[in-house]
Amino acid sequence: MRNTRSRAVRLGVLVTAAVMVLSACGGGSIEEQTEANEEAAGEAGGECGDLNMAVNPWVGYEASAYVVGTVAQDQLGCTVNYKELKEDVSWQGFGTGEVDVVIEDWGHPDLEKKFFAEEGDGTAEDFGPQGNVGIIGWFVPPWLAEEHPDILEWENLNKYASEFATSESGGKGQFLGADPSYVQFDEAIVSNLDLDFKVVFSGSEAASIEAFRKAEENKEWVIGYWYEPQYFNAEVPMQRVALPPYEEGCQDDPQEVACDYPETELKKIVGTEWAASDSTAVDLVRNFTWTNEDQNVVAGYIAEDGMSPEDAAAKWIEENQDTVDTWLG
Amino acid sequence: MTATIARSSTPQPVEPGAPPPVEEHTSISRWIPATVILAAWIVVWYFTNGTQTLSLPGTSRTDLHDRLTEFQNDLLAGRDTNPLMQFTNAIADALRSLFEWIQKLVVVPSFPRPVPEIGWLGVTTLATYVALVVASWRIALLVLASFLSFGVLGFWEDSLDLLVITGISVVLAVVIGIPLAVLIGTSRRASSIVTPFLDFMQTMPTFVYLLPIVLFFGIGPSAAVVSTLIYALPPIIRIAGFGIREVSSTTVEATDSAGQTYWQRLVKVQLPMARKTIIVGLNQTTLAALSMATLAAFVNGPGLGKPVLAGLRINDVGTAFVPGALIVVMAVMLDRTTTAASERAEKVARGGGGDPRVRRGLIIGGGVATLVAVYLSRTYVSLAEFPEYSIGDRVASGVSDGIDWFTDTFGGATEWIKDVITNEFLNRTQALLADSPWWLAFAAIAALAFVFGGVRALVSTIVCLAGIWYFDLWHDAMITLNMTLVATVLVMVLALVFGVWMARDRRVDLGIRPLLDAGQTIPPFVYLIPVLALFGPSRFTAIVAGIVYAAPAAIKLVADGVKGVSPTTIEAGRSTGQTTWQEITKVQLPMAKGSLVLATNQGLLYVLAMTVIGGLVGAGALGYDVVYGFARSEAWGKGLAAGITIVLLGVMLDRITRAAADVRRDDGPGSRRAFNLRLPIGPPSN
């Protein structure tokens, strides 16, 4: 009995001693900081409060979200909560106050109908363009555009269809469709333009990027749905194939589409309640605009250089404080 | 030791005392009518193929799908007035507050403190101490090492968030699950009512119910807890219910004769005697909960799933690998701890468990040390915030480089394998299944079900096929069915090769098992990226992902089955001078036939459970439909229809293989049925 107790005591002493030694080198008392925090909280009026920023799952979006979030946090003193969500889920969050801002919206007529004031429950509102222009279309890797320049016209696609055939495409050429989140009419376009292609859905942005990267490296034949702004285009400058030009109304009936995608002005969507609040971040989000190049730079920091989104945003902000100042008004 | 995590999603070994395998002659004769049906199918197909296939383009919907979508829209429109939603919102608020309270206790700064109430040193010591009290020294060391690895690899906060979410979910699962387990354990009728719901909860792809959960419970921790709960609740109900039912009837009768009430019988006899099984159920539920980590991250659920998804977003396997590996570490830690705790509970119940005085010393000494550690972590910043290390980043870039090298080097060869298997195998069977007119495939599948499983399988099959037809995704369902069948054939090839090898050589077994455990526990999102790099977006990529997930379970089952073959039988064969090949093919495999069928059943269901993951990497069909429904609100109904179709396919395949395995023992009790045939149908991350 004595033996065991002394063992336990010895253990306790040992641990205590070890911990004391450890703590000695890693200074700083929590008590002091707590007091400092309490004082600071007493002084600050808490003008900005919480900013709930949805982060939709593609790197370009992440870049926009973290740049605005970092400015709000560092220069306005907001508490920024990043919420990683798909678009549809984000929009549902406006009504419950779980989401305040969707910073990069590629056009969701269906969601607008549900959540904008005119037709839906009015929990969301359009906060204007965010400066980026979304270009959607059919793209091929650069090596292909260089060796067969005529491929960049849709009329010539059938000539090469057999080259695009894969084990997935059942004898026809394979067209690589995209992540299901994106607006896409490729099946209709293929059939309405009488193209000898079959749409195979990549299922995710990651899958498309892998396919394009491999195709450029090994000079494989690939054609697929792709878009800008997109950091990957800096690594592999994908080339756009011209389809019959977009005209107003040519995409109204999804089954009848036979034209190219329009350029999309990406915009900001915010919660109505938040927009009416006195948070200082409201003006920041309202004023925020930047360019495709800006976004690609930050997205590249994240995806190519492996920086955390916070660090990437901070780096860009430091280099572009004058732009940031225009947002702060 | 190796068997423990195996139990996570795999079944127990077939016990040696199990009834003998079905006699050989009954099954051989089945192949003759099956061949006839197949031949007739091919003949009719030859004349009709390509007609009435009911194919629906990837982005089209039918009226039925739109009606289902409308249902969700109505819910959404009425969310401010719907009393049910106000109730669920209140629950969600409670869950969120609970989570945030615990979070401030151990993870995030508890304002105005710059750090949590209890810093990393306190948390780690507490966890170690708990492991010491409920289990043993060894387990305590394991827990200590695991917690330190969370911090050293740079994911301290995400790891603790995941532990908290898992903890809340498991506690709720116990609170809800145990009464239900008692119910199904004591009433056969209750059991037959509850079981289909449990099947449904485990086979329904998570993506399908994530949106309604968001609707009812919001996003973030409460959505994470609820979706985790749906997936993790069935194991504890099933296994604990089974344990209660299996309490020997003589014991119950003997104590009944003493005049006990229902409650006395339950609390004094049934629950204590089923304790060990209940803890097995708890263990299974814990691991199932953990496997939801990545999926919960889709609705902003806190935890290690977030960095895994971030890795997928930037196509970097290294980034996803480290948090993925930590999920495995956490699974091993929880699994070993609950297992050791159950063994200890057993020992203590029998009056063992070591010298009580030594133990008291340990508990007091450890308690004091823990208090000291907690105090220190409340006082010094360095003991409250985990110091930063760059080891995690180095591991990540090492893994990325390794995988890059691998895909660059073997990319050509893998492309060739993909093309051969796709063209020579997958496309041909798909042409038969999916390009047949729907009535032909319907009739042929039903006929095959009858041949292999008899009338009961026929009835289930017809009901399921009719349901699949009703939900307007017949063509996609057939493509998915085909991928599932092809993947299962490949799984069984692997299972036979590795299973027999493991059974015949103990060292191989010891070497391979940890790999199998990891294959089952690591989130599929981690290995999707390298598999994509090797095979590109295609059905074959999805098949490979399915195989990685399903093969471990099948291999273990085959290995355990072959090992269970009685040594005397083998000796008898050897004395007649048969070769090793003869011994395997003539004795071991036929004798282990029950396990082989079981492995096929599990292989089918595990592969099917990966359908949605397949949809993310170019497999199309039902997986894509589910992902599409989750991503675009106007297509939610189609996603739901696809989810239900997957469930129907699963039920159909399960019923046919179970009936084929053994018609006579279908209703019999026994651990095989409870643990193996019905258990985790779901994947870690679907």
Beta-strand percentage range of chain B: under 5%
Largest interface, with counts of residues having CB < 8 Å to the other chain, equals: A-B, 81 and 89 residues
* Major sheet attributes of chain B: none
| Nearest-integer average pLDDT of chain A | 86
Radius of gyration of chain B: 26 Å
Which range best describes the helical content of chain A: under 10%, 10-25%, 25-40%, 40-55%, 55-70% or over 70%? 40-55%
Please compute the radius of gyration of chain A using only Cα atoms: 26 Å
The oligomeric status of these chains comes to: heterodimer
Percent range for helical residues of chain B? over 70%
Number of helical regions of chain A: 15
Flag low-confidence runs of chain B: 1-26, 663-686
Number of helices of chain B: 31
Largest sheet of chain A: 7 strands, mixed
Structural class of chain A: alpha/beta
Sequence of secondary-structure elements of chain A: HHEHEHEHEHHEHEHEHEEHHHHH
**Class by alpha and beta content of chain B:** mainly alpha
Instruction: Name the average pLDDT of chain B.
Output: 83
Number of β-strand runs of chain B: 0
Account of the protein in words:
- The complex is a heterodimer of chains A (329) and B (686).
- Chain A has 329 residues and is of the alpha/beta class.
- Chain A is 46% helix and 19% strand.
- Chain A is built from 15 helices and nine strands.
- Chain A has helices at residues 2-25, 30-43, 59-76, 87-96, 109-115, 142-147, 157-160, 186-192, 205-218, 232-235, 272-275, 281-287, 292-303, 309-319, 321-328, and strands spanning 50-55, 79-84, 101-105, 124-140, 173-177, 197-201, 223-228, 239-241, 263-271.
- In chain A, strands 3, 4, 5, 6, 7, 8 and 9 form a seven-stranded mixed beta sheet that branches. A two-stranded parallel ribbon of chain A has the order 1-2.
- In chain A, helix 3 crosses helix 13 (292-303), helix 3 crosses helix 14 and helix 13 (292-303) packs across helix 14 (309-319).
- Chain B is mainly α and 686 residues long.
- Chain B has helices spanning 3-9, 24-48, 63-77, 83-106, 120-134, 137-152, 156-186, 188-203, 206-217, 221-245, 249-256, 262-273, 275-290, 293-296, 305-313, 317-349, 356-379, 381-384, 391-434, 438-470, 474-504, 506-521, 524-535, 539-563, 567-575, 580-591, 593-609, 611-615, 621-631, 636-661, 671-677.
- At the A-B interface, helix 1, helix 2, helix 4, helix 5 and strand 6 of A face helix 3, helix 9, helix 15, helix 17 and helix 18 of B.
